Amino acid sequence: MVGRKKISFFNDIKLRVLSKISSWTSKLFSSGGKEVLIKAVAQAMSVFKLPLGLCEDIQQAIASFWWGSKKEQRHIHWARWEKLCSAKGKGGLGFKDLSSFNQALVAKQSWRNIQFLSSLLAKVLKARYYKHTDFLNAKLGYQPSFIWRSIL
């Protein structure tokens, strides 16, 4: 159950990502290896709308890993994270902005509820939150779950 303190609820996700990143030794990887690790592991997200502060903390840890920084030793970040997140064709590395990527994944759940009406999730949400209408006209309702709040 996600309460009002979302940051403490999602702290486990943050700690898992940070422990993964801290266990990697950046000097043992080539830049291509670091890119694959960041894209495959650190940018895996969920269907929950993650708090912005959590996304910023994870992005900061990823940027520090990319540039080779550690707690005891800092390195210069030679480019802004926004530049690294731009497409490769535009001079970036194609990393994803975590908050935007998370929002896209949550929006994909909305799209799935519209396209696949016979799916279990669509049936459960319809029975609980919008019995007499369709998904696009649904309201927040009484005591909505965090997943429903995120999707809506």
Tag the structure with descriptive keywords:
152 residues, mainly alpha, 2 domains, 8 helices
Can you walk me through this structure?
- With 152 residues, this protein is mainly alpha-helical.
- The chain has 2 domains: 6-97, no CATH class; 103-151, no CATH class.
- Helix content is 55%, strand content 0%.
- It has helices at 6-9, 11-23, 31-42, 52-67, 81-85, 98-115, 120-129, 146-151.
- The model has no long low-confidence stretch (mean pLDDT 81).
Question: Helices, strands, pairings?
Answer:
Layout: H1 6-9, H2 11-23, H3 31-42, H4 52-67, H5 81-85, H6 98-115, H7 120-129, H8 146-151
Tell me, rounded to a whole number, the average pLDDT: 81
How many beta-strand segments?
Answer: 0
Number of helices: 8
Structural class: mainly alpha
**Percent range for β-strand residues:** under 5%
The helicity comes to: 55-70%
Rounded Rg: 19 Å
Q: Low-confidence stretches at least 5 residues in length (pLDDT < 50)?
A: none
Sheet bearing the most strands, described?
Answer: none
**Silhouette:** elongated
The CA-CA distance between the termini, in Å, is 18 Å
Element pattern in H and E: HHHHHHHH
